Amino acid sequence: MPRITVKVDGISYEEDVEPRMLLVHFLRDRLGKTGTPIGCDTSNCGSCTVLMDGKSVKSCSVLAVQADESEIVTIEGLSSDGNWHPMQRAFHEEHALQCGYCTPGMILAAIDLLKDDPDPSDDAIRQGLEGNLCRCTGYCNIVRAVRRGAGEMGVTTR
Amino acid sequence: MIPASFDYSRPSSLDEALAVLGDAGEEAKVLAGGQSLLPLLRLRLAYPTTLVDVGRVAELRGIADHADHVFIGAMTTHHEVIRSPVVNEHCPLVALATATVADPAVRHRGTFGGSLAHADPAGDLPSVALALDMDLVARSSLGDRIIPAAEFFVDYLEPALEPGEILVGARVPKLGPGWGFHYEKFHRTAQAWATVGVAAAVRRSNGTVEEARVALTNMGPTPVRAVTVEAAVRGVAADRNGSLREAAEQAAEGADPPGDLHAQPDYRAHLARVLTHRALLAACAV
């Protein structure tokens, strides 16, 4: 069984995994990172989005062995010292979630989007979140939240 | 859902990958970005005995600018292709179509060569390869084999790759000045496969179409060249006065569109005509 070394939310793990184990199962079942939900299991919904070496990926479409030697950030790794990430706060404040199932993926996809485009237009936000489906909100509040989160992230980095 | 068991190998060089693939037998599969293959494994629609993961084979990655063509390495991700200045300057049709593939997360992992080797007629890059007359380069222990795009797509999900061969990349001809390009895609949701897509390259001179290349996505078991349109559009006025529409009316001729949940064959034929017209207008910039 292959052994992988992977850093998840700042902690290094060395684990033996079956080649067929999906990254999302590794995160949830092996590491207990249940903040990453499984939505559709068909690569459509984006709920299981995590950052892999800084880029958004659908963790149901990556094998755990492919994540060997990489760094993963899940929704559980965003807050620091008990303080929410500005994008998490923005989603809360703009009421950008109802059931919350898509939220971890939305937030991570949004953070990835801002790396390329720190001050995105509404259209760029919608395009950047194309792979993430929400069945509750109708997206308006999500777009507002990403804009607000972008503003706050800009302030904190300046 | 959990895929069936398979053996896994992660070579670090192309030679090693070829050796592993040669030893692994006919039921082995090459794993590129996995964005098409992993969903198939999860649904248990494919049962490879071994996956040869070429994700760490550096030789397969990258874009090189040559005199008459651009070489795009098979493991170059869609994300990298879209951002490549060389691709955008010399083969913009590739960048335009790649930007419509699925969504950002899929484009971070999915690869140029993986999309071609998967040979899905609903994929966006096979029709682009056909329209641009790309030469695909496959390597085996016997050496390199050049496969023209017109011979590469044999049947549904069936590329002209032999067991033991790995697609290393494609030579994309530089078409030079005077050409305009467009990829027109119709899909139900942002990240869905194309219901129908049209890749068009048009060379104009003095307001007239000199030459056109048109290829269709998801209009048969393989991507197809709309040769009737290409012939009909030659020499017509590159404007909005109707001659491009008339040529596009023949877009579905000779095609064998599938019927599925998303569209029946007659509807796909209708889409091919409408989208070809739009693609020609955009490629002519009128």
From TrEMBL, chain A:
<feature type="domain" description="2Fe-2S ferredoxin-type">
    <location>
        <begin position="2"/>
        <end position="78"/>
    </location>
</feature>
<dbReference type="InterPro" id="IPR002888">
    <property type="entry name" value="2Fe-2S-bd"/>
</dbReference>
<dbReference type="GO" id="GO:0046872">
    <property type="term" value="F:metal ion binding"/>
</dbReference>
<dbReference type="InterPro" id="IPR036010">
    <property type="entry name" value="2Fe-2S_ferredoxin-like_sf"/>
</dbReference>
<keyword id="KW-0560">Oxidoreductase</keyword>
<protein>
    <submittedName>
        <fullName>Carbon-monoxide dehydrogenase small subunit</fullName>
    </submittedName>
</protein>
<keyword id="KW-0479">Metal-binding</keyword>
<dbReference type="Pfam" id="PF00111">
    <property type="entry name" value="Fer2"/>
</dbReference>
<dbReference type="GO" id="GO:0016491">
    <property type="term" value="F:oxidoreductase activity"/>
</dbReference>
<dbReference type="InterPro" id="IPR051452">
    <property type="entry name" value="Diverse_Oxidoreductases"/>
</dbReference>
<dbReference type="InterPro" id="IPR036884">
    <property type="entry name" value="2Fe-2S-bd_dom_sf"/>
</dbReference>
<dbReference type="GO" id="GO:0051537">
    <property type="term" value="F:2 iron, 2 sulfur cluster binding"/>
</dbReference>
<keyword id="KW-0001">2Fe-2S</keyword>
<dbReference type="InterPro" id="IPR001041">
    <property type="entry name" value="2Fe-2S_ferredoxin-type"/>
</dbReference>
<keyword id="KW-0411">Iron-sulfur</keyword>
<keyword id="KW-0408">Iron</keyword>
<dbReference type="Pfam" id="PF01799">
    <property type="entry name" value="Fer2_2"/>
</dbReference>
<comment type="pathway">
    <text>Alkaloid degradation; nicotine degradation.</text>
</comment>
<dbReference type="InterPro" id="IPR012675">
    <property type="entry name" value="Beta-grasp_dom_sf"/>
</dbReference>
Automatic annotation (TrEMBL), chain B:
<dbReference type="InterPro" id="IPR002346">
    <property type="entry name" value="Mopterin_DH_FAD-bd"/>
</dbReference>
<dbReference type="GO" id="GO:0071949">
    <property type="term" value="F:FAD binding"/>
</dbReference>
<keyword id="KW-0274">FAD</keyword>
<dbReference type="Pfam" id="PF03450">
    <property type="entry name" value="CO_deh_flav_C"/>
</dbReference>
<feature type="domain" description="FAD-binding PCMH-type">
    <location>
        <begin position="1"/>
        <end position="177"/>
    </location>
</feature>
<dbReference type="InterPro" id="IPR016167">
    <property type="entry name" value="FAD-bd_PCMH_sub1"/>
</dbReference>
<dbReference type="GO" id="GO:0016491">
    <property type="term" value="F:oxidoreductase activity"/>
</dbReference>
<feature type="region of interest" description="Disordered">
    <location>
        <begin position="244"/>
        <end position="264"/>
    </location>
</feature>
<keyword id="KW-0285">Flavoprotein</keyword>
<dbReference type="InterPro" id="IPR005107">
    <property type="entry name" value="CO_DH_flav_C"/>
</dbReference>
<dbReference type="InterPro" id="IPR036318">
    <property type="entry name" value="FAD-bd_PCMH-like_sf"/>
</dbReference>
<keyword id="KW-0560">Oxidoreductase</keyword>
<dbReference type="InterPro" id="IPR036683">
    <property type="entry name" value="CO_DH_flav_C_dom_sf"/>
</dbReference>
<dbReference type="InterPro" id="IPR016169">
    <property type="entry name" value="FAD-bd_PCMH_sub2"/>
</dbReference>
<dbReference type="Pfam" id="PF00941">
    <property type="entry name" value="FAD_binding_5"/>
</dbReference>
<protein>
    <submittedName>
        <fullName>Carbon-monoxide dehydrogenase medium subunit</fullName>
    </submittedName>
</protein>
<dbReference type="InterPro" id="IPR051312">
    <property type="entry name" value="Diverse_Substr_Oxidored"/>
</dbReference>
<dbReference type="InterPro" id="IPR016166">
    <property type="entry name" value="FAD-bd_PCMH"/>
</dbReference>
